[in-house]
């Protein structure tokens, strides 16, 4: 039997690489289930364009900005009395993006240690999600989707950077044990046209809760 409390008012995080379709998925699922959607700060992000031009110079600034905004959002979600779904989780900020920048040599050890300490303190106050939904796609699919949506600040993204993020995501998902994770392969999934598959995914999400 489904847990009515969890299916009516769950705390769900959408995880996935750039261009995988998190925002669209969040919009559609929140509308279907009457859950409140929360979206990451992109269009008003003061560092994003500079970051893609010079990752080494702006990486730390960008990651602290995202961490600040995601922490603020996570607190609002935790206080909500209805179901909530978040477009990208706070855990990805460190485990994927900041860690990857450090491994690529774009984030110094000093900045990485500083960031990790800040992340650890902040997340110790946060509620864990009831479910993280990981939307996955191969690198070629992601590059194609990024080009098709035509955002100016993404025009200079290096495909190799997207590939390293994909590797990081797969490694992270295999290691997660603090909360349940559901993986959805999206390469051959057109969310706008394949309503039957979306119905099946929605039902599986409710079962997982």
Q: Given the C-alpha coordinates, what overall shape results?
A: globular
Kindly estimate the percentage of residues that lie in beta strands according to DSSP: 5-15%
Q: How widely separated are the two ends?
A: 11 Å
The CATH architecture comes to 3-Layer(aba) Sandwich
Biggest β-sheet strands, sense, barrel: 5 strands, parallel
Instruction: Tell me roughly what share of residues is in helical segments.
Output: 55-70%
The top-level CATH class is Alpha Beta
Instruction: Tell me the structural class.
Output: alpha/beta
Describe this structure in words.
The protein is α/β, with parallel strands linked by helices and 209 residues long. The protein has a single domain, classed as 3-Layer(aba) Sandwich (Rossmann fold), CATH 3.40.50.300. Helices cover 56% and strands 11% of the residues. The protein has 9 helices and 5 strands; from the N terminus they run H-E-H-E-H-H-E-H-H-E-H-H-E-H. It has helices spanning 4-8, 22-33, 48-53, 55-78, 90-103, 109-123, 139-149, 159-175, 195-208, and strands at 11-16, 36-38, 84-87, 131-136, 181-185. The chain has a 5-stranded parallel sheet with strand order 2-3-1-4-5, with helices on both faces. Helix 5 packs antiparallel against helix 6 (109-123). The mean pLDDT is 92.
């Amino acid at each position: 039997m489904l847990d009515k409390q969890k299916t009516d008012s769950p705390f769900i995080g959408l995880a996935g690489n750039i261009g995988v379709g998190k925002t669209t998925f969040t919009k559609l699922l929140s509308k279907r289930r009457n859950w409140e959607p929360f979206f990451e700060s992109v269009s008003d992000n003061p560092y994003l364009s500079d970051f893609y031009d010079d990752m080494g110079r702006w990486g730390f600034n960008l990651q602290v900005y995202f961490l600040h905004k995601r922490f603020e959002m996570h607190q609002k979600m935790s206080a909500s009395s209805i179901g909530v779904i978040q477009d990208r989780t706070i855990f990805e900020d460190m485990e994927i993006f900041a860690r990857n920048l450090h491994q690529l040599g774009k984030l110094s050890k000093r900045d990485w240690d500083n960031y990790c300490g800040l992340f650890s303190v902040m997340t110790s106050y946060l509620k864990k999600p009831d479910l993280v939904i990981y939307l996955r796609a191969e690198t070629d699919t992601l590059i194609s989707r990024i080009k098709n949506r035509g955002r100016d600040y993404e025009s200079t993204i290096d495909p190799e950077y997207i590939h390293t993020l994909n590797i990081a995501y797969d490694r992270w998902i295999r290691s997660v044990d603090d909360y349940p994770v559901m993986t959805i392969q999206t390469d051959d999934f057109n969310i706008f046209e394949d309503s039957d598959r979306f119905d099946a995914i929605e039902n599986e999400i409710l079962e997982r809760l």
